Amino acid sequence: MLDLENDWADLLEQELKKEYIIKLLDFLNIEYKNHTIYPPKSEVLSAFRLTSYQNVKVVLLGQDPYHQPNQAHGLAFSVKEGNRIPPSLRNIYKEIEATTTVKCPISGDLTRWAEQGVLLLNAVLTVRDSEAGSHRDKGWEQFTDFVIFKLNEREEPVIFMLWGNYAKKKIPLITNNRHIILTASHPSPLSAYNGFFGCDHFRKANMTLEELGKNEISW
Predict the structure, then answer these.
(1) Is 3 an active-site residue?
(2) DSSP class per residue in 63-129
(3) Of the residues 3, 10, 26, 64, which is catalytic?
């Protein structure tokens, strides 16, 4: 379930041997055996497989996966092809269209972002069917905090997009001033009008990438 083949493998090797990960895997094996869990085992680490450590340009932090059938596939805010675009992602698309020249697609599959260097990282990587937050406080948060810690160590700047109070709690993990932190309210319909709309993060991110001599993200 937690096998990786790119540069994340070496970076995470020792962390994946720790006792809390062993306990997490024991918990997950029981959960997958007795309940419907999302995403499928093979897609739990999709974000890492699609976006190598060295290729990370932007980190977009979510909370936990979608908990309805055939939605989650290991990428924060993203849903599998053929699903209706969820409300938060629809608001993300609205912000992109309002502040860039991009006309967003009808698909909610964000694989294309991941392949360009956007790490779509959920703090919790699994969830039980129809039970939002059911796998919180089982060890995933410690693991994904370690991922942020490793990104913080990078010499190459990383742009962190932190939306909502939950994501903003990760700011203390980002201590190197070479990195760029963009904050706003969450794109959920409950909060998007309180600071997400108009945050201009997508244009700002591309401007920063251009200044760094890197290819912009085709949102």
Answers:
(1) no
(2) SS---STTT-SSSTT---TTSPPPHHHHHHHHHHHHHSS----S----HHHHHTTEEEEESS--EET
(3) 64
